[in-house]
Amino acid sequence: MANSQNRGIEVLQDPVLNKSTAFTEAEKQKLGLIGLVPDVTETEDLQLRRVLLQLAQKNTDLERYIYLESLLDHNETLFYRTIMSDPARFLPIVYDPTIGEACLKFGHMYRQPRGMYLSITRRGKVKDILKNWPQRDVRFICVTDGGRILGLGDLGANGMGIPIGKLQLYTACAGVPPQCLLPMYLDAGTNNEQYLHDPLYLGMRKPRPSTKELYSFVDEFVEAVQQVFPKCCIHFEDWTGADAVHLLQRYRDKYCVYNDDVQGTASIVLAGMINAAKIKGTRLSDEKYLFLGAGSAGIGLADLICSAMVKEGLPLKQAQARVYMFDINGLLQDARKDLFDFQKQYAHKHVPTRDFVAAIESIKPTTIIGVSTVGGAFNQKVVESMSRINERPVIFALSNPTDRAECTAEQAYTWSRGRAIYAAGIQFPPVRLDGRTFLPGQANNFYVFPAIGMAIFATQATRVTDEMFMEAAHAVADQVPSELLKQGLLFPLQSNILESEIQTAARVAKLVFNSGLARVKPPSDTVSFIRRHVYKPEYVSATVPKNKAA
Ligand code: NAI
Fold first, then answer.
1. Mean pLDDT, the chain, whole residue set
2. Is the pLDDT of residue 350 over 90?
3. How many Å apart are CA 116 and CA 144, to the nearest integer?
4. Which of 179, 206, 359, 545 is the most buried (most CB within 10 A)?
5. CB 61 within 8 A of CB 94
């Protein structure tokens, strides 16, 4: 890790210090690098040109992903310079949808350690193990147990690709400094038979333990983090639905934690719904919602929509009455005996049905939301039924990766004859239909969690609240200009994502200060305050003292 005493080859092997071909003559002299690098001094732009050239020679996004990750292994600044130079192009490579394939092959592609691996067999020693991490001021740990990776199920240790990728987005999208981020895999085994028998699998070869055992391990981890990294926020990611909701309930009032699948998804989808309502000229509380999928993403969103309707003046019970859910066993209704505690408020009086189209015909929702992991579940009959009932059916097909999307953008626009207001979890290309161009939105959490992260980082917030996610949703929604709304775009353009997230982070930070949750003094101008904390992918001079460097 970065050490200003390093010289010679050690500097080149340190991804934080390494500038590769960009060291100046004075730096080469000072650091003992003469002869160890080509005798040139290139600019970062020229280095970027070489990276882009090499990327263009790769045939698949997975190869580009591998190339970029190895670039990060030897030159962190150039890696972030590359992905921040064109986020719309690179986010799908370092994250969704390429990350799904990268996780499936994680054990086979493994090259370098990144982040920490903590096995349940180490119980009792978690605090000491955390101290092995070389950075002391860790501000975010993104942690998974690999229980439900994207829509791909239990991937065990192969799920480590997710915390690694998620934390890169904190930096790439919102400028959170990479040095304070720690990806973490809690290994409690896996029930994935294929991996249990794969000689190259990198996790424990044991079936998953009981929930009680798992939670006692997570308890030890969460408490150890408070002691070793006292300013750290724990971001839970890609646990199974029940664990995601239960662990969030367990820690949210005691520690600085959040679950992005539950709260981040809810926030970005709420942003989409706020803008869908703007297009339709309605309010959230005028709409009726039917979910396909009642897991962590579905429940988090249902709860946040209800809070938003309550904010509009509807009593909570009436808000909940406008939300219906449908899962693998059919419509959630009050006679079902298999529901989790957190699903029961959405189980209304209704005849049992396992037929989603029949549920649409009977409930008459204005909005359907796919968080089921079932690709193609919004088939032609579903979209046509929604289009019969609604002038502007709102159709959100949010499951990831690409083949799990409940319907594609083209299907939604074609089957609704151009009337659908549509968003997906991944980015579909624009659709041309009857001489019009539709811009499908990507309801991806990366508009929200990096900005929330930046707000927490800058304010040193002590808790993460639902109000912060609601504020983020409004901030994201407000940044879509009306001319783009008319073309169906529900979210800001990705090309400008850093600026968009700075604005969102500033609004969330303001709320953190007003709620008394900050550990630093409130600034007079929150936007400039956030800007001051933004990481820039620029080399630091090794010859000019830090405070005098440009
Ligand atoms: P989960 O495993 O907690 O829940 C899945 C839900 O779908 C369960 O209620 C299950 O009963 C239901 N389901 C499964 N098969 C079904 C079927 N055939 N018919 C009806 N319902 C069915 O998963 P979670 O965390 O809720 O995620 C769901 C999906 O949402 C994943 O694909 C995930 O990648 C995606 N997601 C997308 C995000 C985004 O930003 N767009 C963010 C978070 C999740």
1. 95
2. yes
3. 11
4. 359
5. no
Whether 184 contacts 163, CB under 8 Å: yes
Report the alpha-carbon distance of residue 145 to residue 77 in Å, rounded.
Answer: 29
The catalytic residue positions are 95, 166
Tell me the best of 373, 442, 449, 452 to mutate to test the pocket of ligand 1, counting ligand atoms within 8 Å of each CB and taking the most: 373
Ligand 1 in reach of 298 Cβ (< 6 A): yes
- The Cα 375–Cα 360 span in angstroms is 19
Q: CA 452, CA 78: separation in Å to the nearest integer?
A: 25
Which pairs from 507-513 meet CB under 8 Å and 24+ separation?
A: 507/471, 507/472, 507/474, 507/475, 508/451, 508/452, 508/455, 508/468, 508/471, 508/472, 508/475, 509/454, 509/455, 509/458, 509/459, 511/467, 511/468, 511/471, 512/455, 512/456, 512/459, 512/461, 512/468, 513/459
Place of tokens 């990327």: 55
> How far is it, in rounded angstroms, from Cα 233 to Cα 226?
9
Is the CB–ligand 1 distance for residue 144 below 6 Å?
Answer: no
Residue 4 confidence class, pLDDT cut points 50, 70, 90:
low
Helix (H) or strand (E) segment spanning residue 397? strand 394-397
The 10s digit of each residue's pLDDT in 219-273 is 999 999 999 999 999 999 999 989 999 999 999 999 999 999 999 999 999 999 9
Helices (H), 86-153: 87-94, 98-104, 106-109, 126-130
Q: How far apart are the C-alpha atoms of 512 and 505, rounded to whole Å?
A: 10
What helix, strand, coil percent values describe the chain, rounded to 5? 50, 10, 40
Amino acid, res. 483: E
Give yes or no for residue 371 CB within 6 A of ligand 1.
yes
What is the number of other CB atoms lying within 10 angstroms of the CB of residue 453? Answer: 33
Q: Whose CA is nearest to atom 35 of ligand 1?
A: 399
Q: CA dihedral defined by 45, 51, 52, 54, rounded to 10 degrees?
A: 150
SS3 299: helix
Please list, in sequence order, all residues whose beta carbon lies within 8 angstroms of the beta carbon of residue 39, skipping any fewer than 6 positions away: none
Does a cis peptide bond (omega within 30 degrees of 0) precede residue 430?
no
Radius of gyration of the chain (CA): 24
What is the phi-psi region of residue 386: left when phi exceeds 0, alpha when psi lies from -120 to 50, beta otherwise? Answer: alpha
